[in-house]
Amino acid sequence: MTGETASPGTPRWFTDTKESHSEWYVERFRTMAAEGADLDGEARMVDAMLPRGARVLDAGCGPGRLAGALARRGHDVWGVDVDPVLVEAAEVDHPGPTYRVADLATLDLGTDPFDLVVSAGNVMLFLAPDTERAVLARLREHLRPGGRLVIGFRRDPDAYTWDRLDADALALGLTRDHRFGTWDLEPWTEESDFAVTVLRRA
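The structure assignment produced for this chain is given below.
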């Protein structure tokens, strides 16, 4: 990995969760998959936005569920997560993508730009406090001109809000194309508990 520097803070993923949370998270999705749960909703939306064989970065990939689903659909996928436990599980459960352990606030993969960057799973709420704009800036730098950044997270005014996302995106030159209330494109309203925001790099 090129250009990696020290993280500006410890992500909430580590500070605001209980011991063994990572292992619980891995087993949760393994159990859901074994029970036949539909875990591909995000992948269906993202796949519909892309040509075949597109380059996709799953930023905050967790145990690889979304990255693996997109790779099975024929895309060139990279998955990045700050938690080595989750990345190890991703490599076992969803082989195919290229996985890396890295902090999104200092991300520099040194690769060709991506057609789309997706950040699902409430990743923005688990970042180190006050690094959200830095993370958006790093993700923007990994996009090709005209590429899209798709971010989904729940309402949480104590961590990060959609208004702050809009302000940070505007400051970074990202244009908001869409906002939906779910990954299956239900309308978003001011009363929604979740939002999927589609941003575009100029």
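Interim note for the steering committee: Residues 1-6 have pLDDT under 50 and may be disordered. Residues 21-34 form the longest helix (14 residues).
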